């Protein structure tokens, strides 16, 4: 029945939206939900499409910071004023940090596609994420934008590349790397989600071509729309909550969650 399919799109959109901003792997959770609830897989194109909705939510929440950094970078280009040098360097560092994941994504696209549906791999990846979050749970960091270095930015970019592995959270990997380097929680969070923008934008644009060239797109359009709207609003509220959790230093919540889900899935697989 079409209504049942629409409900599936709604559930998947909500799952994507809730889990994209927080460090628990949205793609991994989509696979787990499809596996345990018996929902039909909508494919990588669908995941990228709903991921695009999360991108809009991130841009909206960080719109003031984005506009400030854009304005500052443009002023630096025009005047070379030291006052705006950090804004310009921030954008340069974002580009540099994006490169590792972009290259790896192109080279490993087929491997990622074949591994992304393996539930056991996702469970192990969640456990690794839980360990990483536990290790840095109490770190506060003191380094601000003016203290960012090229070496540190490359390390954060490599962390995002590692997150191409199914089940590894992109936000989790980049935030763990940034906080491990001594960045403040605010800077780690902001840079992580600014880094998400070019990656999501690029993959979203590429996926749109596949979506609109799909001969069955007209039949899926309403379902895609439901999932997109659900993901948009869920991402907005999830990111707002995550920002507050980061400020209070309660990353242990996500670490515990990753352990519970990871061990729970492995236990289920062992007994089934």
Automatic annotation (TrEMBL):
Record-level GO BP terms: cell wall organization; peptidoglycan biosynthetic process; regulation of cell shape; response to antibiotic
Chief location category: membrane
Annotated GO CC locations: plasma membrane
Entry-linked InterPro entries: UppP
GO molecular function, one term: undecaprenyl-diphosphatase activity
Enzyme class: hydrolase
Regions crossing the membrane: 44-62, 90-107, 119-136, 188-209, 221-239, 251-271
Subcellular localization(s) per the UniProt record: Cell membrane
Membrane-related topology note: Multi-pass membrane protein
Enzyme Commission code: 3.6.1.27
Entry annotated with the keyword Transmembrane helix: yes
Additional observations: Bacitracin is thought to be involved in the inhibition of peptidoglycan synthesis by sequestering undecaprenyl diphosphate, thereby reducing the pool of lipid carrier available.
Function summary: Catalyzes the dephosphorylation of undecaprenyl diphosphate (UPP). Confers resistance to bacitracin.
Protein family per UniProt: Belongs to the UppP family.
Protein name in UniProt: Undecaprenyl-diphosphatase
Organism of this sequence: Alkalihalobacillus alcalophilus ATCC 27647 = CGMCC 1.3604
């Amino acid at each position: 029945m079409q209504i049942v399919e629409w409900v599936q799109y709604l559930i998947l959109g909500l799952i994507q939206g809730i889990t994209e901003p927080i460090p628990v792997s949205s793609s991994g959770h989509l696979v787990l939900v499809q596996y345990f609830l018996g929902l039909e897989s909508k494919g990588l194109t669908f995941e990228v499409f709903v991921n695009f909705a999360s991108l809009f939510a991130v841009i909206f929440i960080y719109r003031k910071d984005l506009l400030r950094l854009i304005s500052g970078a443009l002023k630096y280009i025009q005047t070379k004023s030291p006052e705006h040098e950090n804004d310009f360097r921030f954008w340069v560092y974002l580009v540099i940090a994006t490169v590792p994941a972009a290259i790896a994504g192109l080279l490993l696209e087929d491997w990622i596609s074949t591994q992304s549906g393996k539930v056991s791999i996702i469970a192990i990846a969640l456990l690794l994420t839980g360990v990483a979050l536990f290790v840095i749970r109490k770190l506060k960091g003191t380094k601000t934008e003016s203290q960012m270095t090229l070496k540190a930015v490359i390390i954060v970019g490599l962390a995002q590349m590692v997150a191409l592995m199914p089940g590894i959270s992109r936000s989790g990997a980049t935030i763990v790397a940034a906080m491990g380097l001594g960045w403040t929680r605010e800077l780690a969070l902001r840079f992580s989600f600014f880094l998400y923008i070019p990656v999501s934008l690029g993959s979203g644009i590429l996926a749109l071509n596949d979506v609109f060239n799909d001969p069955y797109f007209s039949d899926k359009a309403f379902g895609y729309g439901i999932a997109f709207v659900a993901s948009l609003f869920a991402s907005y509220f999830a990111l707002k909550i995550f920002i507050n959790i980061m400020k209070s230093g309660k990353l242990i919540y996500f670490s515990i969650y990753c352990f519970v889900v990871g061990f729970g899935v492995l236990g289920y697989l062992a007994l089934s």
